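re: the backbone from monday

yeah here it is again, tokenized this time
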């Protein structure tokens, strides 16, 4: 009888051993997934807030008599749609369903209503935001450091601290002048 119990796995005397290494791997993977999810929703929320700020700016311009361009009107419509679809998506997320239930519901919605999700929480818009922020960082570093490789090499290889500081200050002043020209292009008056 004991032999039959052990072959069927019904032996109560055997205590299963815990593999702590695999548990650590599972915890690490799930922690990374949770961190990525929080980052995704955080970036989407930041994008929604920036969209709302842009819409507010456009609406205040429209009230002051500015005629909105079609691109600006489309941005206002997209943001309004995002706000309207955010409410049901949030309600569906809050409803206590099993993980499988959430997957089934969101798969159904994605298949039959592909534009149901707010656009600020889509991979397409978030990837575009990341690309634009990378370009902004690159442009601002080019603006500060200059595009002249010889000047940068001279700055980095300068052994005289006063020469280093003067080259750096000259580059910063040129950058400030470039920025002021881009801010005040047609005024004719230098700040």
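seq for it, each position gets an aa:
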């Amino acid at each position: 009888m004991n032999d039959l119990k052990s072959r069927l796995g019904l032996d109560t005397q055997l205590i299963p051993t815990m593999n702590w290494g695999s548990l650590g791997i599972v915890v690490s993977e799930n922690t990374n997934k949770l961190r990525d999810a929080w980052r995704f929703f955080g970036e989407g929320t930041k994008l929604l807030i920036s969209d709302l700020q842009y819409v507010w700016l456009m609406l205040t311009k429209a009230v002051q008599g500015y005629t909105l361009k079609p691109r600006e009107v489309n941005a206002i419509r997209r943001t309004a749609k995002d706000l309207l679809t955010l409410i049901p998506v949030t309600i569906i997320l809050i409803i206590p369903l099993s993980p499988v239930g959430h997957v089934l519901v969101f798969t159904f919605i994605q298949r039959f209503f592909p534009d149901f999700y707010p656009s600020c929480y889509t991979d397409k818009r978030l990837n575009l935001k990341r690309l634009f922020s990378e370009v902004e960082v690159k442009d601002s570093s080019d603006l500060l450091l200059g595009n002249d490789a010889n000047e940068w090499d001279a700055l980095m290889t300068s052994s005289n601290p006063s020469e280093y500081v003067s080259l750096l200050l000259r580059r910063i002043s040129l950058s400030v002048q470039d920025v002021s020209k881009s801010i005040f292009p047609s005024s004719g008056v230098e700040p």
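The two ends are 97 Å apart (CA to CA). The helical segments are 2-8, 20-63, 70-94, 99-112, 123-145, 149-157, 161-183.
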